[in-house]
User: Fold this.
Amino acid sequence: MHARKSPALATATVALGTGLAMSAPVAQAETAHTPAPTAQAAAGGTDASAAKAGWHLIWGPKSHKPTKYWATPDFVPRSGTLGVNARCWNGGDGTKYKIDVVRIRDKKVVKKGGWGYCSGNWMTVKTSAASGTAYYMRIYLKGKPHTVEAKAYYYR
Assistant:
Protein backbone atom coordinates (compact mmCIF):
# COMPACT_ATOMS: atom_id res chain seq x y z
CA MET A 1 0.00 0.00 0.00
CA HIS A 2 2.90 2.38 0.72
CA ALA A 3 4.35 1.70 -2.72
CA ARG A 4 1.26 3.19 -4.44
CA LYS A 5 1.04 6.21 -2.13
CA SER A 6 4.74 7.11 -2.26
CA PRO A 7 4.87 8.19 -5.97
CA ALA A 8 1.66 10.24 -5.54
CA LEU A 9 2.97 11.83 -2.37
CA ALA A 10 6.31 12.61 -4.01
CA THR A 11 4.56 14.16 -7.05
CA ALA A 12 2.31 16.28 -4.81
CA THR A 13 5.29 17.43 -2.75
CA VAL A 14 7.26 18.45 -5.85
CA ALA A 15 4.21 20.25 -7.30
CA LEU A 16 3.59 22.09 -4.04
CA GLY A 17 7.24 23.06 -3.68
CA THR A 18 7.44 24.26 -7.30
CA GLY A 19 4.27 26.32 -6.95
CA LEU A 20 5.52 27.96 -3.77
CA ALA A 21 8.94 28.63 -5.25
CA MET A 22 7.38 30.37 -8.24
CA SER A 23 5.00 32.46 -6.12
CA ALA A 24 7.24 33.16 -3.12
CA PRO A 25 8.39 36.77 -2.71
CA VAL A 26 12.06 37.53 -3.02
CA ALA A 27 13.21 38.25 0.51
CA GLN A 28 16.04 40.75 0.63
CA ALA A 29 17.34 39.39 3.92
CA GLU A 30 20.61 40.71 5.25
CA THR A 31 20.35 38.93 8.59
CA ALA A 32 18.18 36.15 9.97
CA HIS A 33 15.60 37.21 12.57
CA THR A 34 12.48 35.66 14.00
CA PRO A 35 9.50 37.43 12.36
CA ALA A 36 7.84 39.68 14.93
CA PRO A 37 4.09 39.86 14.10
CA THR A 38 3.37 36.25 15.14
CA ALA A 39 5.17 33.00 15.74
CA GLN A 40 3.39 31.68 12.62
CA ALA A 41 5.42 33.93 10.33
CA ALA A 42 7.12 32.23 7.43
CA ALA A 43 10.64 33.25 6.55
CA GLY A 44 9.94 33.09 2.80
CA GLY A 45 11.37 30.56 0.37
CA THR A 46 9.76 27.21 -0.39
CA ASP A 47 9.01 26.19 3.20
CA ALA A 48 5.76 24.19 3.35
CA SER A 49 4.52 26.36 6.23
CA ALA A 50 4.21 29.27 3.75
CA ALA A 51 1.04 27.59 2.44
CA LYS A 52 -0.57 27.71 5.89
CA ALA A 53 -2.54 30.65 7.26
CA GLY A 54 -0.27 33.10 8.99
CA TRP A 55 2.12 36.00 8.47
CA HIS A 56 4.37 35.76 5.40
CA LEU A 57 7.48 37.89 4.90
CA ILE A 58 7.29 40.08 1.78
CA TRP A 59 10.15 42.53 2.35
CA GLY A 60 13.21 42.70 4.58
CA PRO A 61 14.73 42.49 7.01
CA LYS A 62 16.69 45.51 5.83
CA SER A 63 18.51 48.10 7.86
CA HIS A 64 19.44 51.73 7.28
CA LYS A 65 22.50 53.52 8.59
CA PRO A 66 21.98 56.09 11.36
CA THR A 67 19.16 58.42 10.35
CA LYS A 68 16.28 60.51 11.73
CA TYR A 69 13.90 59.52 8.86
CA TRP A 70 13.80 56.50 6.54
CA ALA A 71 11.40 55.86 3.69
CA THR A 72 11.79 52.14 3.00
CA PRO A 73 11.69 50.61 -0.48
CA ASP A 74 8.25 49.59 -1.78
CA PHE A 75 6.58 46.27 -1.01
CA VAL A 76 3.34 44.69 -2.27
CA PRO A 77 1.10 42.57 -0.01
CA ARG A 78 -0.63 39.51 -1.43
CA SER A 79 -3.69 39.83 0.79
CA GLY A 80 -5.90 42.43 2.42
CA THR A 81 -3.95 42.44 5.70
CA LEU A 82 -0.55 44.09 5.99
CA GLY A 83 1.78 44.08 8.98
CA VAL A 84 5.02 46.02 9.26
CA ASN A 85 7.57 46.23 12.01
CA ALA A 86 10.72 48.11 12.82
CA ARG A 87 13.19 48.57 15.63
CA CYS A 88 16.17 50.66 16.62
CA TRP A 89 18.63 50.61 19.50
CA ASN A 90 19.51 53.58 21.68
CA GLY A 91 21.81 52.68 24.52
CA GLY A 92 19.63 54.73 26.87
CA ASP A 93 19.69 58.11 25.09
CA GLY A 94 15.88 58.54 25.07
CA THR A 95 15.38 58.48 21.29
CA LYS A 96 11.85 57.59 20.16
CA TYR A 97 10.59 56.25 16.83
CA LYS A 98 7.33 55.62 14.98
CA ILE A 99 6.17 53.89 11.80
CA ASP A 100 3.68 55.18 9.21
CA VAL A 101 2.40 52.93 6.38
CA VAL A 102 2.06 54.86 3.10
CA ARG A 103 0.28 53.86 -0.13
CA ILE A 104 2.56 54.58 -3.12
CA ARG A 105 0.03 55.72 -5.75
CA ASP A 106 -1.21 58.78 -3.82
CA LYS A 107 1.31 59.02 -0.93
CA LYS A 108 -1.60 58.62 1.52
CA VAL A 109 -0.70 57.52 5.05
CA VAL A 110 -3.03 54.54 5.54
CA LYS A 111 -1.92 53.77 9.10
CA LYS A 112 0.01 55.75 11.69
CA GLY A 113 1.89 54.03 14.46
CA GLY A 114 2.46 55.43 17.93
CA TRP A 115 5.78 56.55 19.36
CA GLY A 116 8.00 54.07 21.17
CA TYR A 117 11.53 54.13 22.55
CA CYS A 118 14.52 52.77 20.65
CA SER A 119 15.10 49.77 22.89
CA GLY A 120 15.79 47.00 20.37
CA ASN A 121 12.20 45.69 20.65
CA TRP A 122 10.08 45.37 17.50
CA MET A 123 7.22 47.85 17.04
CA THR A 124 4.41 46.37 14.91
CA VAL A 125 1.69 48.18 12.94
CA LYS A 126 -1.14 46.20 11.29
CA THR A 127 -3.61 47.58 8.73
CA SER A 128 -5.97 46.70 5.91
CA ALA A 129 -4.38 46.81 2.49
CA ALA A 130 -5.37 46.40 -1.12
CA SER A 131 -3.81 43.18 -2.38
CA GLY A 132 -1.38 43.97 -5.20
CA THR A 133 -1.05 47.66 -4.23
CA ALA A 134 2.41 48.99 -3.38
CA TYR A 135 3.18 50.49 0.05
CA TYR A 136 6.23 51.68 1.95
CA MET A 137 7.08 52.65 5.53
CA ARG A 138 8.14 56.03 6.82
CA ILE A 139 10.14 55.52 9.99
CA TYR A 140 10.75 58.65 12.05
CA LEU A 141 13.17 59.12 14.93
CA LYS A 142 12.81 61.84 17.56
CA GLY A 143 16.17 62.39 19.23
CA LYS A 144 19.53 61.20 17.96
CA PRO A 145 20.04 59.38 14.63
CA HIS A 146 20.07 55.58 14.97
CA THR A 147 20.38 52.52 12.77
CA VAL A 148 16.86 51.29 11.95
CA GLU A 149 15.75 47.80 10.87
CA ALA A 150 12.38 47.01 9.24
CA LYS A 151 10.28 44.17 7.75
CA ALA A 152 6.86 43.82 6.09
CA TYR A 153 4.39 40.92 6.00
CA TYR A 154 1.03 39.97 4.55
CA TYR A 155 -1.45 37.70 6.31
CA ARG A 156 -3.16 34.82 4.51
Q: What stands out?
A: The beta strands are 55-67, 69-71, 81-88, 96-103, 108-112, 116-117, 123-128, 135-142, 146-155.
